[in-house]
Write a structure and sequence with these properties.
This is Peptidase M19. Pfam families: Peptidase_M19. InterPro entries: Metal_Hydrolase (IPR032466), Pept_M19 (IPR008257). With about 350 residues, the chain is an alpha/beta fold. It has 11 helices and 9 strands. Helices cover about 40% and strands about 10% of the residues. Strands 1, 2, 3, 4, 5 and 6 form a 6-stranded parallel beta sheet that branches. Strand 8, helix 8 and strand 9 form a beta-alpha-beta unit. Helix 6 runs parallel beside helix 7 and helix 10 crosses helix 11. It is globular, with a radius of gyration of 18 Å. The two termini are about 35 Å apart.
Amino acid sequence: MSVDITDFTVVNALGGLDNPNAPASISASGTLVQTSEQLTVDARTLADAHASGVTAINVTLGYTLGDLPPYQHTLDEIRTWDAIISAHPRDLMRIDTAADIDVAKRQGRIGIIYGFQNAAAVEDRPERVGTFADLGVRIIQLTYNQANQVGDGSMATGNRGLTPLGRDVVAALNERRVMVDLSHSGEETCLEAARVSAQPVSINHTGCRALVDLPRNKTDEELRLVASQGGFVGIYFMPFLHASGHAKAADVVEHIVHAVNVCGEDHVGIGTDGTITAIDDLDAYRDRLAEQVARRQAAGASAAGERSDTYPFVVDLRGVDQFRELARLLAERGFSPSRIEKILGLNFHNYAKAVWGE
């Protein structure tokens, strides 16, 4: 059953814009610390993004893990993305407000949302949230998998809530109308942040722990609380969606269905955590993947469920047709076109209006 998504606003709440087949790309790299300078935004990258129907993508920039100085590295990454967008004015635009998503759709450009996957670059200075906001950052995820100065990640054994500094950072994010993203966070950090935030919060890329009991997936309590306060939950296209690690498109659908049942149809979307351009040579990539996983595990940065024999994406839901294929599968599951439109981007767009303003 086909669904025409041409007129839909499609928003990937966490994704990538990169050609992973290029030698210098992040996906081709065997390094642990990956930077925006490794991005390959070439003609194929842009053509594939346009062909996919995506309207806007929350791209990860700034410090996530490693030995680089978090604050300075993050400033460098912002400048790198500014340069990428400036080099492709007909294809790309930075998203600062919810209205910019409408502009991107109308003009046929790809909206780039600046987002962090770790608040480490804030360090012990909540006022830096204002600095980042002034530079165009619209989403800050509080933690990666490890603990940091604001709270615990999903793999931290303490399962603390927010630290006192973390509460100050959430307040600063609220003041500057920057999204509080609780992906990767530990359960207590997620619950407390959702409760103390003066604005709705998000979990931009996750799965449902009720279906697969892994730390990177969120409990029904977390999902329900975020949604009850007007927030947003994005389901990823990741191995954590199946206990075997070999997730398929059908698993993505099951997690979306469960999230809708828990959160309601107005609060669920997608955050694929992957690129649009597909990797061409999966055999060669598999050889590199083993090294990448080993390095992440040695650094304590990996999540339970990351293994060298599982791809960090869903093999049958990738490439330029990934959003159309998901729409088709949701239609087969009984979702109406209006509900599918919500899942593919309208819900994120409405959430953005609530946090960023029009």
